Amino acid sequence: MRGRFITFEGADGCGKTTQLRRAVDRLRALGVDVVATREPGGSSAGAEIRSLVLDRRERPIVPVAELLLIEADRAQHVVETIRPAIERGAFVICDRFTDATVAYQGGGRGLDPALIGTLNLIATGGLEPDMTLVFDVDVSEAMRRLDRRAAESGGEAATRFDLEHAGFHDRVRSAYLDIAGKSPGRVRVIDANRPIEVVAADVDRFVEELRCRCAI
Ligand SMILES: Nc1ncnc2c1ncn2[C@@H]1O[C@H](COP(=O)(O)OP(=O)(O)O)[C@@H](O)[C@H]1O
Ligand SMILES: [Mg+2]
What we know:
binds adenosine-5'-diphosphate; alpha/beta; 5-stranded parallel beta sheet; 5 strands; Rossmann fold
């Protein structure tokens, strides 16, 4: 049986990682074979690529170099992790995938969407998610959450993307909504301004929809 592939997308601070952990715990408790992974950083070379792409550096990375690093990570990630898991019948949940590149490097950085489409196709070999959840949150709310997360954990450091101005984040958000409008069969938009439990109920509903599709 072929597995399923679902991606979680949206701005930093929208709650992807929070929701992904909850969804994974719930599915594992039900006995589902789940593979949780993320981009950038899901491949063996991923940790190094992730730090190159996200770390705040003295030396900036030009947008095209950033794009190529992300796509290199994706190419490795798809072959090494995602495809084998789907083929063995697992339920794969990935924190960011191709839509993040369209939203951040396309919408945010202004790189050519056709170029991004081509590179996404090369990196994935044509693999597309069966379902994508876009967690849509107000830019100001996302900023508040990121400040809180940084203060609470002392942990997850600000990335190069967190340092971008509000206009950048507005463009990323619009790009995600644009993707959802163009791919209504694949993409579900969830209002992520609401409390964690309320958002989680929507996540569970969509995940169950995909699992049922799987059983047919
Ligand atoms: N629905 C929510 N309401 C309020 N705070 C939230 C919500 N979802 C997540 N958070 C908090 O916001 C911060 C960012 O969430 P996180 O899951 O790390 O987002 P992302 O992975 O999308 O960047 C965390 O501190 C998390 O606990
Ligand atoms: Mg996260």
